[in-house]
Amino acid sequence: MNQCLQARKPIYPLFAIHLSITILVFGMLLAKTNRYISYFLLSLFLLFFVIGYHKACLGVLPFMLILGLAFILPKLLKSPIEIDKTLTSSARILSFTVSVIPTLGIIPIDLVRAMRELKLSKKLILASLIIFNFFPLVRGEIKNCRLAVKTRATKKYTSPNILYRAYLIPFITNLIRISEVISMSVETRGFSLSKTKDTIYKFPRLGFKDLLIYLFFLIEGVVVVLYGHGSFN
Amino acid sequence: MGKSTKKNNKFKYTVKDVVLISLMSLAALAFSGVMPLTLPLVSTLFGITHLVTCVQANFFFTIAIYKVKKPFALLIMSSIMGLIMISMHPIMAIIFVGPALILEFLNYTFFSGYKEKLATIATVGALFPASLLFFYLALLIINDNKASLINNWPAIVIICGVIVLSYLASFLGVKIVDEITRVKKRRTKL
Q1: Do A24 and B23 make contact, defined as CB atoms within 8 angstroms?
Q2: What is the ipTM of this complex?
Q3: Whole-prediction pTM value?
């Protein structure tokens, strides 16, 4: 994930991932109760903002606005009476964007260490490490391709032949090259998919604060879901 | 090298393979990001989500599978995509992983892997049309009104579009991989 979105003092990485999944599930359960879902998501957003995830919150905000409006506007223009149904679909997508916040704040190496501590599959660890580094990598590659097109002073940028030759082929070649470089660098640092014993010298510590934050979010979610479903029925 | 070792190597994924498969599935996911914008149209146009994602997904899937050339690569990639789609709707994950499982089985029985161009194009290109069929069946099973949308004329256009675009994207993916490997070979000769 992008380094500038990482939290100052992130909570225990596995707790953060579990929180993301839980928020998403609670969001889906509450999607039909318009009032409760809005309270729930707003309170979560503000809480994350306060406990040090402000960069991730601000990073997610444009996506929230764009996706929220993209869902609301077409349906509102079509039938303004069915506002409840419109809000349900937008609530689902908004809960997805809020659930991403704790995961965005994770430091990738801490996640890898925590996963190794739990003796999870090495393939899964490798895949999750790539997920965390993928978006900055791709953004960089797209920038490089654009720069290359500009430096060659290509004017017909929209022509399919130019897009194919100057943009698509370099992009794919670079992606394949990146995958080769990543696998080489991972292997030279002693990572292998075979069942070899490895030693971990540094573990992410599970503090009292992490546990407190995790339980607080969990209890809040359960309470709101119970209230929300009570009112919905 | 014994026969059993050769067979094991055919199925054994290296670090390079895992990295390439995860990178390409993420690229497919990232470029399929336009899909949520079409969700408001789902209730009026049958298969619109498949139409807007088939090109990107098939393109990146083909590149990874044709490079890796190992069985079950399609299943792994569609499972990664399905994992993300569970968050939107569990049925969306099923309609992606189900066809991939059947196609892998068919591929293994008829082509025994992705060594040939035709095998890759035929298998990966069939993923989205098969997924569309699964989608229709899922709608029928859960008694959703959207299943009747298939009777409308735009549905026929969309289904044809999905089939054509899927195979076109697969063909383009294979072509690009061939081009890249040709350039690599030329460089090593020099």
Answers
A1: no
A2: 0.79
A3: 0.79
